[in-house]
Each structure stands twice: as C-alpha cells, then as structure tokens.
Amino acid sequence: MRPPRLRGYLNEEFEFPVDRARVVERAGDVTIDAPDDDDSESISAMLERDNDNPYETLEDLFASIYGSLDDSYIGRKYYDDRGSTVEEVTGDYPRDERNVSF
C-alpha cells in the first residue's frame, strides 16, 4: 500500500479505541510501499517501534505508523526547487553568492 492511502485504510478497518494487538492481528501483514521495494515494511514491524497502546483515535494510530517511516520513504533527499544543490546543503563545496537570488 502506498503511504498516502494509509489513513483511509485504517479508518475503514478499525473502530477506535483499538489496541496494538488488534491492529497487528488485522493489518500487521499489510506492507507500506517504499520507493525502493526492498525497503518496504509491514505495519506490524512499524508498530514494534512504538509505545502507544491503545490508540484512542485514528490520528493516534496513523501518526504512530506514518511517523515511523524511515528515510527510505523520503523522495530525493536535500531536494530544493529553489536551486540549492546537495553540495550547498551539506557544505561539501563553497557557495557562490552570485547565484543566490533574494
């Protein structure tokens, strides 16, 4: 499942409050797709890193799962549509102030 579909899926599957055991039983095998399929994780794996129990609302459960997505779910790191480059962000190369627009 793509991350943007997660909230709707959880809303359809659960009545709240719900505890972690019920979520894992019902949806633990559902995989949240990462851009690189090798990095995709199941909901049960994501909830192992969380200590919220029970989840009082849809937002609690959604935040617990979505908040545990790691860097592999992020698109292009350091992307800036305003023109910064990775070198400028990381400091690996001197910044040319002539190319900066204010």
Write out the strand line-up for the largest beta sheet, numbering strands in chain order. 1-2
> What is the average of the pLDDT values?
78
Please tally the helical runs, counting DSSP H or I stretches of 4 or more residues. Answer: 5
Fraction of residues in helices?
A: 25-40%
Give an account of the 3D structure.
With 102 residues, this protein is mostly helical. It has helices at residues 6-13, 20-27, 43-47, 58-66, 86-90, and strands spanning 31-32, 41-42. A two-stranded antiparallel ribbon has the order 1-2. A hairpin with an 8-residue loop joins strand 1 and strand 2. The longest helix has 9 residues, at 58-66. The model has no long low-confidence stretch (mean pLDDT 78).
Primary descriptors:
102 residues; mainly alpha; two-stranded antiparallel sheet
Protein topology:
Blueprint: H1 6-13, H2 20-27, E1 31-32, E2 41-42, H3 43-47, H4 58-66, H5 86-90
Antiparallel strand pairs: 1-2
Summary, kept brief:
By secondary structure, this protein is mainly α. It is built from five helices and two strands. 34% of the residues lie in helices and 4% in strands.
